[in-house]
Amino acid sequence: MEDIAFKKDETPYLIFACKKCKEYSYVKTTQKTKKCLRCGRTHQVRDISKDGEVVYGMTEAVNTVKRKQNELAIPEFRSGSDFVVATNVTSQPKQKKVSALRSEDQEIDYTGKFNEMLLELSKLYERFPKYMLEIMAQSYGIPALQTKNLVRNAILSGKLVKNGDDDLYYKYQL
């Protein structure tokens, strides 16, 4: 009877960052090309071999890609305390102060905070999806109803330009 045993994968993999979108990926060193899963750019393995890191085994390659990609993540989106238990009030996510004016017959004006948020997003990303606006608005303390109104007004005024695939990006105006 044959002895069945697991054989450890010692295949060399090259870990590299895409030259176009900077997304980390891995490829066997014996392959000729690798297409980026995010942007679709095709990389020649011989050209990227000097820029990458070689690891041995599929598990190590996947873990290295995850670790390197997590190092690039924005701190707001990579924190582990995003999901807070309702009974634990002390560990609420940090929110920036709301610097808005309130009078007795006037609601809070979130336009300044929204413009500040758009400026920050546009510095981090060239284009960003609509859900990122909603996440950032929540961290800035802007209510969801106000966020929808501010996004609509920003699109009408030309500050946010809608892309065809429902991505939005901020066009900074001085």
Give me the secondary-structure topology.
Elements: E1 12-17, E2 24-28, E3 33-35, E4 42-44, H1 45-48, E5 53-56, H2 58-72, H3 75-78, H4 111-124, E6 128-129, H5 130-139, H6 144-157, E7 160-162, E8 167-170
Antiparallel strand pairs: 1-2, 1-5, 3-4, 6-8, 7-8
Helix pairs in contact: 5-6
Characterization of this structure:
- The protein is an alpha+beta fold and 174 residues long.
- It folds into 2 domains: 12-72, Rubredoxin-like; 99-170, Arc Repressor Mutant, subunit A (Orthogonal Bundle).
- The protein contains 6 helices and 8 strands; from the N terminus they run E-E-E-E-H-E-H-H-H-E-H-H-E-E.
- The protein has helices at 45-48, 58-72, 75-78, 111-124, 130-139, 144-157, and strands at residues 12-17, 24-28, 33-35, 42-44, 53-56, 128-129, 160-162, 167-170.
- The strands form 3 sheets. A 3-stranded antiparallel sheet has the order 2-1-5, with helices on one face. It has a 3-stranded antiparallel sheet with strand order 6-8-7.
- A hairpin with a 6-residue loop joins strand 1 (12-17) and strand 2.
- Helix 5 packs across helix 6.
- The longest helix is centred in the middle third of the chain and has 15 residues, at 58-72.
- The radius of gyration is 23 Å and the shape is elongated.
- The chain starts with 11 loop residues before the first strand and ends with a strand.
- The model is unreliable at 79-106 (pLDDT under 50).
